């Protein structure tokens, strides 16, 4: 760790207390520093470091939080098996450009007697929310807590978790939080598999099979580019591709309008292709965006 690019520091400052982080960042803002914030659950990979690198390029201080948030897991098994390696994560975050790393305990984020929850209706109960009851309530609650600790900042989120990104945008607008949300593109493996902390838990065979997710999304996109406008046709194509992979158990393969998650029968404007499937007991999600062209309708040149 020899870099001095992190706002001139030679080692990250590791902070465990919410009050301490708030006052350090408030003092930095008083000096005129801008803050970039990247909330994570650790097990950092190049998806996370791409967010940290973007913040490094755009902000004076870069804060990374590492907290495996228990309230967003709807399965105890998934929470228990979530990969954790705090030393690796601290080193990785620092090398990517973080100068403050916030590593609170569960007790710090959810003190005894804490009761408040943040609920963002509608978007929380479809797709991931439907399959993982309570998940988005946990996400909205922890993100709101982190935002109020960090204060005014740019916050970087991956498009990889598109529903989460839209939910966070909604809650920031609804609650008038002084946070600018920056969406960052999904980082992928060579075969297109989106990087995810959960990929570590795939067997070799499952890992190989998981490339089918991006393949299905890409085929859906190609159909749209060829002029197909029926949502049902695109969804059926993606479902058919997944059904040919015995290691995958499909949850959903759907097309929605990117801004409001509506499932219109005829595609138009900015749409998002969403997919979720299990490989063994590992649940993976992915998505891609497509701008539906106005011209070149099916059958026209
Ligand atoms: P997580 O640690 O899974 O909660 O993710 C922390 C942040 O990293 C979220 O904003 C994710 O959307 C983002 N992220 C996770 N995987 C990727 C990826 N492959 N590409 C870009 N961003 C990602």
Which short descriptors sum up this protein?
301 residues, alpha/beta, Rossmann fold, Pantoate--beta-alanine Ligase, Chain: A,domain 2, 2 domains, six-stranded parallel beta sheet, three-stranded antiparallel beta sheet, 11 helices, 21% strand, globular, binds adenosine monophosphate
Name the shape in a single word: globular
Please write the string of helix (H) and strand (E) elements: EHEHEHHEHHHEHEHHHEEE
Residue stretches low in confidence (pLDDT < 50, at least 5 long) are none
Strand order within the widest sheet?
Answer: 1-4-3-2-5-6
Which CATH C-level class of the largest domain is it? Alpha Beta
The helix fraction, in percent, is 25-40%
Cofactors, ions, other ligands: adenosine monophosphate
CATH superfamily of the largest domain: HUPs
Please, how many domains? 2
User: Strand-residue fraction?
Assistant: 15-25%
**Rg of Cα set:** 20 Å
Q: Please provide the count of β strands.
A: 9
Mean pLDDT value: 95
> What does the largest sheet look like?
6 strands, parallel
**Could you tell me how far the N terminus lies from the C terminus, measured between alpha carbons in angstroms?**
56 Å
CATH 2nd-level architecture of the largest domain: 3-Layer(aba) Sandwich
Oligomeric grouping of the chains: single chain
Topology readout:
Blueprint: E1 13-15, H1 18-30, E2 35-40, H2 46-58, E3 61-66, H3 76-81, H4 86-96, E4 100-102, H5 106-109, H6 128-131, H7 135-150, E5 153-158, H8 162-174, E6 179-184, H9 204-209, H10 212-225, H11 231-243, E7 248-257, E8 269-279, E9 282-292
Parallel strand pairs: 1-4, 2-3, 2-5, 3-4, 5-6
Antiparallel strand pairs: 7-8, 8-9
Helix pairs in contact: 7-8, 10-11
Bound molecules: adenosine monophosphate.
């Amino acid at each position: 760790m020899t870099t001095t690019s992190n706002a001139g520091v030679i080692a990250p400052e590791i902070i465990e207390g919410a009050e301490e982080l708030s006052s350090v960042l408030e003092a930095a803002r008083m000096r005129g520093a801008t803050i970039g914030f990247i909330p994570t659950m650790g097990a950092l990979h190049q998806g996370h470091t791409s967010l940290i690198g973007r913040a490094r390029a755009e902000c004076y201080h870069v804060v990374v939080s590492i907290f495996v948030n228990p309230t967003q897991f709807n399965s105890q098994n998934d929470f228990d098996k979530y990969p954790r390696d705090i030393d690796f994560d601290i080193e990785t975050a620092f090398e990517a450009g973080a100068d403050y790393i916030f590593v609170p305990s569960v007790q710090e984020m959810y003190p005894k007697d804490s009761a408040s929850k943040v609920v963002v209706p509608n978007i929380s109960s479809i797709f991931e929310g439907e399959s993982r009851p309570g998940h988005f309530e946990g996400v909205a609650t922890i993100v709101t807590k982190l935002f109020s600790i960090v204060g005014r900042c740019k916050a970087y989120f991956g498009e990889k978790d598109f529903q989460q990104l839209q939910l966070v945008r909604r809650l920031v607008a609804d609650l008038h939080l002084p946070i600018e949300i920056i969406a960052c593109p999904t980082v992928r493996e060579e075969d297109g598999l989106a990087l995810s902390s959960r990929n570590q838990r795939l067997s070799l065979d499952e890992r190989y099979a998981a490339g089918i997710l991006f393949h299905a999304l890409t085929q859906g996109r190609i159909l749209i580019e060829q002029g197909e406008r029926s949502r049902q046709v695109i969804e059926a194509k993606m479902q058919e591709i997944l059904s040919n992979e015995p290691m995958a158990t499909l949850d959903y393969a759907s097309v929605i309008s990117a801004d409001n998650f509506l499932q219109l029968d005829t595609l138009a404007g900015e749409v998002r292709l969403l997919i979720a499937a299990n490989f063994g007991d590992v649940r993976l999600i992915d998505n891609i965006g497509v701008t539906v062209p106005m011209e070149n309708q099916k059958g026209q040149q």
